[in-house]
Design brief:
The chain is built from four helices and eight strands. It has a six-stranded parallel beta sheet with strand order 5-2-1-6-7-8. Strands 3-4 form a two-stranded antiparallel sheet. α3 packs parallel to α4. The radius of gyration is 16 Å and the shape is globular.
Length: 203
């Protein structure tokens, strides 16, 4: 059992990010047994959930002529245009049916503002609009985080980098994550996490 100040953050283990989903991560469902097993090792457990409205501006379908995985410029910087995914209330936005959700102390929904995407569990993509997770963890006395889930090179990495920037001690369990790896994004994410002092572990 981990100390009380060590939290497990399970990122976006949702149907649309698993095989057969709208934005499937290769072997995304393979993390579920490992994450389920980890739940009992932590006193504080948080699940995040991508939760987009239909008109979300990160969807390629909401930009005339734009192809999925192309880039656009948002007021906050470059933005990947994704296939429509994790739309509020849909089956795709639901957690993977085998994921243990009952142990979660908090389910944090992100990406619900139509005009801004949200990879990180801590901040929207403008890097200033907070989700409230930091305050929740501070009031629970949490200082250390273990991150697992989907996808390594986007939502997990962004969350890990923000957590390190906020002063948390961060471990990413790579064996309980899977990546999209879009144009070398995995190697770049791993490089940035190492540079920020994030511990990359396998078991």
């Amino acid at each position: 059992m981990q100390p009380a100040e060590h939290a497990l953050i399970a990122i976006d283990i949702q149907n649309d990010f698993c095989p057969g989903g709208a934005l499937a991560v290769d072997e995304g469902d393979a993390v579920v047994p490992q994450v389920n097993a980890l739940m009992d090792d932590f006193a504080v457990r948080v699940l995040t959930q991508d939760w987009h409205p239909e008109d979300h501006l990160s969807f390629a379908a909401n930009h005339a002529g734009a192809a999925p995985f192309s880039m656009t410029e948002m007021p906050y910087g470059p933005q990947v245009l994704w296939p429509r995914h994790c739309v509020q209330g849909t089956e795709g936005a639901a957690f993977h049916r085998a994921l243990r959700t009952n142990p979660a102390d908090l389910i944090l929904r992100k990406g619900f503002r139509p005009e801004i995407d949200s990879y990180s569990a801590f901040f929207e993509n403008d890097r200033t609009t907070a989700t409230g997770l930091e305050g929740y963890l501070r009031t629970r006395g949490v200082t250390h985080l273990t991150l697992v889930g989907l996808a390594t090179d986007f939502c997990v990495a962004y969350s890990a980098l923000d957590a390190a920037r906020l002063g948390f001690t961060v471990v990413v369990r790579l064996d309980a994550c899977r990546a999209i790896d879009l144009n070398g994004s995995l190697d770049e994410a791993l490089r940035q996490m190492r540079a920020a002092g994030v511990t990359l572990a396998n078991g």
